[in-house]
């Protein structure tokens, strides 16, 4: 009899624990395309930098203040809309040597694990896909307000920064004049949705 009672109590405890876990508040935000931008900066000829701008993006963020180690961050960037400082560079970046937008029109970042380092900063671990190649990437985030205090009703500004090696994504052209490290910065406004 004691065994059956103990077994029943364990089952009730597990049921309560699972139902408590499922009641955590989860908030969904959409990236506001009008308030979002991405730029990529790379060293050029060892004396300066070149930038590319990606004005068209969309995405979402799902998070729970009770489970700040989890995040569903999904950002898609329209690489066909990229712009550089001049037409020649824009054409080269869209071509086969770099983003090859005719075949790979979308650059995508998906993140699932969030490590907060302060109330308004953290790192999300995920995967970046560009030019048909997917690699693990850590994106350093800063929030305009603590996401652990989110109520799902207010907008939040978000900035994400990472550095990648362009050669890891098959972009090996012009290696003598264009640096291999590329710093990517995402700036966006998260709108409840």
TrEMBL record:
Keywords, comma-separated and alphabetical: Signal
Keyword Disulfide bond tagged: no
Q: Which residues form the Lipid/polyisoprenoid-binding YceI-like domain?
A: 28-191
One Pfam family hit: YceI
Gene3D superfamilies named among the record's database cross-references: Lipid/polyisoprenoid-binding, YceI-like
For this protein, the record's InterPro entries field holds: Lipid/polyisoprenoid-bd_YceI (IPR007372), TTHA0802/YceI-like_sf (IPR036761)
Cleavable signal peptide: 1-24
Taking the record's annotation, the residue ranges forming a coiled coil are: none
Q: In its UniProt entry, what is this protein called?
A: YceI family protein
Q: Which organism is it from?
A: Sphingorhabdus buctiana
């Amino acid at each position: 009899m004691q065994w059956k009672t103990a077994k029943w109590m364990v089952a009730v405890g597990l049921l309560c624990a699972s139902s408590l876990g499922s009641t955590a508040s989860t908030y969904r935000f959409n990236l506001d395309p009008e308030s979002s931008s991405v730029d990529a900066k790379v060293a050029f000829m060892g004396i300066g930098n070149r930038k590319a701008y990606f004005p068209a993006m969309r995405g979402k963020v799902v998070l729970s203040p009770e489970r700040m180690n989890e995040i569903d961050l999904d950002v898609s960037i329209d690489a066909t809309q990229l712009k550089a400082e001049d037409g020649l560079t824009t054409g080269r970046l869209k071509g086969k040597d770099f983003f090859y937008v005719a075949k790979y029109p979308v650059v995508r970042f998906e993140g699932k694990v969030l490590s907060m380092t302060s109330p308004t900063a953290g790192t999300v671990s995920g995967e970046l896909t560009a030019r048909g190649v997917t690699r693990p990437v850590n994106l350093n985030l800063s929030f305009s307000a603590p996401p652990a205090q989110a109520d799902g009703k207010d907008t939040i500004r978000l900035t994400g920064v990472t550095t990648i090696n362009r050669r890891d994504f098959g972009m090996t052209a012009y290696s003598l004049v264009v640096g291999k490290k590329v710093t990517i910065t995402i700036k966006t406004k998260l709108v409840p949705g």
